[in-house]
Structure formats: structure tokens, C-alpha cells
Amino acid sequence: MAEDFPFDALACAWQSGEPEQVASLCHPNATWIVDGRPYHGRAEISAWLRSIGVMPHRARILIRRAFRDLREPAWWAAEWALRTAADDGCWREVEQGVMLCFSAGQITHLRIHNDHRSVRKVAADAPLRDEAWPAFIPPRTRDMTYDEILAVHYRHVRQGWARGDAETVISCHAPESLIQTSFEVVRGHDQLRRAVRAYAENYADTVITVHRVVYSGDYLAIHQTWSCTNRKTGVRADDQDLNIGVMQDGRFWRWREYYDSTQSAQTLEQTVFGVKRADEN
User: Fold this and answer.
1) Where is each SnoaL-like domain found (predicted)?
2) Residues 63, 54, 65, CA angle at the centre, nearest 5°?
């Protein structure tokens, strides 16, 4: 597999429709984790790929971006759209965040986080849908250190979101920043204040645990567990998040969250800016 860009080789093998070819890119004891569910070793990875219908001419992967960690270059992150065809010939697309470890020419660890609310019917060769991005992100002036990244992120989530402190949250964001969750897109400081207030009204006992950071200078990915209790339903859940975006000079500019919204304590109805898709009930 190409040392400089393992996602290309992975996408090519996946699109071949041969699960064993995909698994052959992995270390014999590799682990894949898909929306929190682990698959250990090549046999389990192949079986999972067959279970989701990986067959010749029935899968396409469109990579939006992929990047490599500056400190630990074995670690990579990417955003891509996975398209699969059913027996009736109809194609479906889901947007995914992906993180992997690539060492000695093999994938040793891979995690996939689906944005289940992004699923749509699509033509096999249709262009990617437009992304939510700020109108402008200035060039970075320097690379941030990992201590700086974690200090900003912990202030953002633990002192801000977890405590319902909107001013702390917005202090971690550029005025033109954007957050995209499975349920809503929040743009700018004013909307962010409203979103933080709504979160505090609806959720309690928030705990965030960071597991890994991948930072290329241009892009940032953080894998974390976000735990909270829904005040209205009483449901408590641990969301396995893969968040991908841009942080420059201590502030977030763009933040996209990938997590399994079907298993989350959070709901569309309890957001400020979330809207139902045309095909949702």
C-alpha cells in the first residue's frame, strides 16, 4: 500500500467489491470499529464488509479530504462519501468520518463513524453534495502544539458545553465559525449562543473523554466519547464522536461531527436550527 496516501489504496480495494482484498491491506490482528462496534482480524473485517453488501461494481468511495498527523505520522483521518448499490440498482450515499493507523505497510486500526442522517438516494456518478463551510478561512500563521489544541478543546467542551457557558464556547470560535452535527448547522457566535443554551436546557451530566488527536496543520480530527443524559427522556448515551475541522491560532473555524445519531441521547427535536430532511417522517 502506498505509504504516502493509504486512503487511496483502501478506497480502490473497497471499490473492487472483494472483501478479502480490503482485509489484505490490514495487519492480521487489525481492528476495525464501525459506529462503536469492533471487528477483530481479517476474517471478521471481511465478514462485516460482505454483510453490508460489498460486491463488484456496487461500491464507490469519494474522498473529500485526507490528512496525516504531524506528531505521529502513522495516524491519518479523512472525510469521504460511501456509495453502495442495492439489488434493485438504486444507489445510496452516506457521509463518513474515518481514522486509521498505518504502520509497516499495513492498516493496524481503523474506525468509521457514519452520519446516518446524511443518507440519501443518489446516482452512482452524481457530484458530491455541497458542504457547510465558513465563507472564508484565513491562512494559518503557525502550527499549533498538541497541548494548545487540547487546552482549547477542553475549555470548549468541558468548561463551555458541559456547563452551559455560552461565552466560554464562543471564545473558542472565530466569529465566522461553523459547527455541523448530525442534526443541525450552527453558524457564527449568535447562533452558537442559542445552541449552547438549548443544549444546557435539554441535557445534563455531560462528560467528554478525548481518545486521539490527528492534526496536520491545515486540518484537525478528534476522536472522543461524549456522554450526556437527556433531561426530557431520561436516556443516557455515550456517543463515539469523530470530529473533523479546522483550528487556527486557538480558535475553531469549522467543525463537523460524525456519530451514530440513531443511538444518541440527543434528538433533532431538541435543537434550535435542526430541520427534517424531505424523506424523514
Assistant:
1) 13-108, 158-254
2) 10
Tell me the three cell numbers of residue 120.
Answer: 440519501
- Look at residue 232 and tell me whether its pLDDT is greater than 80: yes
Identify the domain containing residue 40 by its residue range: 6-122
What size, in residues, is the chain? 281
User: Are 105 and 159 contained in the same domain?
Assistant: no
DSSP conformation class of 157: I
Put simply, whether the predicted model's pTM sits higher than 0.90 gets the answer yes
Same domain, 266 and 215: yes
Question: Which residues does 45 contact at the CB level (< 8 Å), separation at least 6?
Answer: 19, 22, 23, 26, 30, 32, 39
| Residues paired with residue 78 on neighbouring β-strands, in sequence order | 66, 98
Question: CA-to-CA distance for 152 and 52, rounded, in angstroms?
Answer: 38
| Domain harbouring 54, CATH code | 3.10.450.50
For residues 25 and 1, the answer to whether their CB atoms sit within 8 Å is yes
